[in-house]
Amino acid sequence: MAQAALGSAGLHLDELNKLRVLEPEVAAQTAQLREECRAFVDKTAEFQKIVGSLIELIDQLAKAAESEKMKAIGARNLLKSIAKQREAQEQQLQALIAEKKMQLERYRIEYETLCKIEADQNEFIDQFIFQK
């Protein structure tokens, strides 16, 4: 009867006979909800921590990939410049070969001319000796 009178006034007794404003079932549900909320907040915090570490790892991988990409671009550019240098060097050597061939041809012509002159002079000397 005391509980009914207290209940009509909005007051209740719990299992320890303490005076409460909330009904024991509502208080138990509130406590259970509080625990579920704490567990949810803890799980959310753990999830944020995991996501944060994942983002950090992805950032590190992105930086490493960007670094490797820059190295690859640098190596490709270096390779292109080496190829251009070799091409320029090949052209220089081809020009030098052409120049040396022209010089060889001039020397050959000069040699043939000198051989003709020598033959003409030897013939002249032989004719001169035979005339005396």
Describe the structure in your own words.
With 132 residues, the chain is mostly helical. It has one domain. 87% of the residues lie in helices and 3% in strands. The protein is built from 2 helices and 2 strands. The chain has a two-stranded antiparallel ribbon with strand order 1-2. A hairpin with a 5-residue loop joins strand 1 and strand 2. The chain is rod-shaped, with a radius of gyration of 54 Å. The model has no long low-confidence stretch (mean pLDDT 89).
Proportion of residues in extended strands: under 5%
List low-confidence stretches. none
What structural category characterises the helix and strand content?
mainly alpha
Distance between the termini: 176 Å
Give the spatial strand order of the biggest sheet.
Answer: 1-2
Primary descriptors:
3% strand, two-stranded antiparallel ribbon, mainly alpha, rod-shaped, 132 residues
Structure summarized in a few sentences:
The protein is mostly helical and 132 residues long.
SSE arrangement:
Elements: H1 2-8, E1 12-13, E2 19-20, H2 24-131
